[in-house]
Amino acid sequence: MQKRFISSLRNKSLQLLLAGGILASSTTAFAQKTTSASPYSQLGIGQIREDLLPQYRAMGGINTGIRTFDGVYNTNPSNPASYSAARVSIFDAGLYGNYTQLKSTTRSANTADFAFSHITMTFPMKKFGGISMGILPFSDVGYRTSSQESINSQTFNKVFTGEGGLTKAYAGWGVRVYKGLSIGANMSYLFGTLNDYSRVEFPLSSGALNPQRQNKREIQGIIFDYGLQYEQPIGKEYALTFGYSGSLNNDIKERATIIDTRTQPSSDPDNQNIPIDTTYMSDRISRHLTLPLKHNVGITLARSGRWLVGADFKYADWSRFQVRNGEGELRKNYGVAVGGQLTPDRSSLNYLKQVDYRLGFRYNKTQYFQAGENVNDMAVTVGVGLPLARTLYLGAFSKINLSAEFGQMGKVANGLLRERYINFNIGFTLNDRWFRTNPLD
Predict the structure, then answer these.
(1) Which is it for strands 251-263 and 238-247: parallel, antiparallel or unpaired?
(2) Which superkingdom (predicted)?
(3) What is the rounded distance in angstroms from the CA atom of residue 145 to the CA atom of residue 147?
């Protein structure tokens, strides 16, 4: 039995080291990849991504009041108080993809992309609660707009593009402090680069070089968020959970550099817009940015082994965010989400009855305010949790979580742009009782 324990300990240690290596090596990939195709992402620090894994996105984004799914914990970085509910070690990683249809009064376009979405790990600490760490996308910038102009019969295009994103590496702790009351907090390192380009493109036949200006913003800083949950059993089968999460007015640092270059026109898409010389580079200009104070409130009602329903209400005050000169103002963000999960019969031999079926809806009055209009975002969400082989003897179980969001942001009116999108998410949740001895010799 001792040999088996040592062997198990060695194997789990290797798994932990491997997971840590994946977590550390993924920071570059997360920082460089953008999945946004929204012109609205050029405002502020990009299009904000919520700290949501696929199982929560499938239910409209409800998460603040969720502790477990029928007693099984799923990592929930949005509310660190939930870490105290972890009973097994959890590794979760996933992919994100989207298809977006953009439409204005004069033109339309379609875009598609995909990227890694998250890597998280959560570990139980018995009476000391639970800890979690991971890497999550914080915001994305990705857009392209153009217009055709002419001077002295010379026609050219003015093109504005953006790319990049911010990534969040977090570590958090949650603990039960009294009966059903739990509290928790995350400390995160926010980092990434946002690039905005403005360029004049002359016809290829003119032989002229294309002047380009790059506004490179390097952003980094430490941010904090916190949460609490209170779970109240109702009889033997039901439980009601109240949740709250929020963040401070976190200060982060931005260092901006202006770079003027000339690019060689090319008919080859892979060789377009490559700078051939630099005509000007400014000194780095530093400034502090204050992220908005956020408040999230959620409530869920669950019946053991069968279903869960809930609602979230969200608020973030972006009106005081320090926008750049000439950039449109930001407003307060309000959101509501409702959703739930149904599992027909987890103990059934029929696989389809063991599947988690999820449905939700969300509505946001976003922080974007353009042409005298608020930009609203709404979506219907669906998803499933597909259980994999479960070994009760070892206390191990795993699942594939799929979600899809069918939504629309903005509208075709008053110079605004409408985005209709489908967001896809897939997550691989691996659970195990690490460092547990085998009960049989």
Answers:
(1) unpaired
(2) Bacteria
(3) 7
